[in-house]
Design a protein that fits this description.
Elements lengths: L21 E2 L2 E2 H18 L5 H19 L7 H10 L30
Antiparallel strand pairs: 1-2
């Protein structure tokens, strides 16, 4: 090897750069849903004798349902299922846009536009 040639620099790189972030097997959106349920149930039932059953029972059951229903499904399955369920069944390709408004350029009294 000549002195002019430099050796190739090598560094280690994580093997899965596109790995999804999961906490205890749940996606981040599922964890947020569980914590939202936990906080709302605690707000409503936190001072009642049903605290443990309603707060922890519903959160645990929701977590188990999410875990077993989403097993083997692709990422963001629930979001895509909700979009599919609540969107209209018929989609028209050549329908006029109802929200479209034609752009009307405002002019001064003299007929010229001095804004440009």
């Amino acid at each position: 090897m000549n002195n002019n040639e430099t050796p190739l620099l090598v560094s280690t790189v994580p093997r899965t750069l596109e790995a999804k972030s999961k906490i205890f097997g749940f996606e981040i959106s599922d964890v947020l849903l569980l914590f939202l349920n936990l906080s709302i149930q605690n707000l409503i039932f936190g001072t009642t004798p049903l605290k443990y059953l309603m707060v922890w029972g519903t959160t645990l059951s929701l977590g188990l349902i999410l875990f077993f229903v989403k097993r083997g499904k692709p990422d963001n399955y629930l979001q895509h299922l909700a979009q599919y369920t609540f969107s209209s069944a018929i989609k028209y390709a050549n329908l006029n846009d109802r929200k479209y408004r034609k752009f009307i350029k405002e002019t001064n009294e003299g007929g010229s536009d001095d804004r440009l």
